[in-house]
Amino acid sequence: MTTLNVRIDDGLKAKASKTLSGLGLDMSTAVKMFLHQVIIEKGLPFTSTKDLNVIKTRWDKQVAYALKYGKSYKTAKEALAGLL
Questions:
Q1: What is the chain's percent helix, strand, coil content, to nearest 5?
Q2: Is the dihedral of CA 41, 11, 9, 2 positive or negative?
Q3: How far is residue 14 from each of residues 19, 24, 33, 69, 81, measured CA to CA in Å?
Q4: Which residues of 14-27 are buried (b: 16+ CB within 10 A; e: fewer)?
Q5: For residue 8, is it left (φ>0), alpha (ψ between -120 and 50) or beta?
Q6: Count of H-run helices and E-run strands, the chain
Q7: Where are the domains of the chain?
Q8: What is the C-alpha to C-alpha distance for residues 22 and 16, in angstroms, rounded to an integer?
Q9: What is the pLDDT of residues 9-64, one digit of tens each?
Q10: How many angstroms separate the Cα of 67 from the Cα of each of 50, 60, 71, 77?
């Protein structure tokens, strides 16, 4: 096991900690989750852009993929069974 030290603004840390706490996460767990996603995605697990056309195009592509290949369920019980 190793330790990772990161320097960030106090305000940023406080706001992020509050948000993460609301999700039931602490900072360490959130960073670990982020790093696992970096490995899975082989890059950043998000897209950094302010271009609304790029965002909409990516969203539309993801929706089309989900509609074509995603599963659908008629009941919550059926959906839960699909998770197991």
A1: 65, 0, 35
A2: negative
A3: 9, 15, 19, 40, 39
A4: eeeeeebeeeeeee
A5: beta
A6: 4, 0
A7: 1-46, 47-84
A8: 10
A9: 999 999 999 999 999 999 999 999 999 999 999 999 988 888 999 999 999 999 99
A10: 26, 10, 8, 21
One-letter amino acid of 15? K
Is the pTM of the predicted complex or chain greater than 0.85? no
Contacts of 33 (CB under 8 A, 6+ apart): 25
**What six digits make up the tokens of 46?**
């998000």
**CATH architecture, range 1-46:** Orthogonal Bundle (1.10)
Q: Which amino acid is at 65?
A: Y
C-alpha pair distances (Å), 71 with each of 8, 14, 28, 60, 83: 41, 39, 33, 18, 11
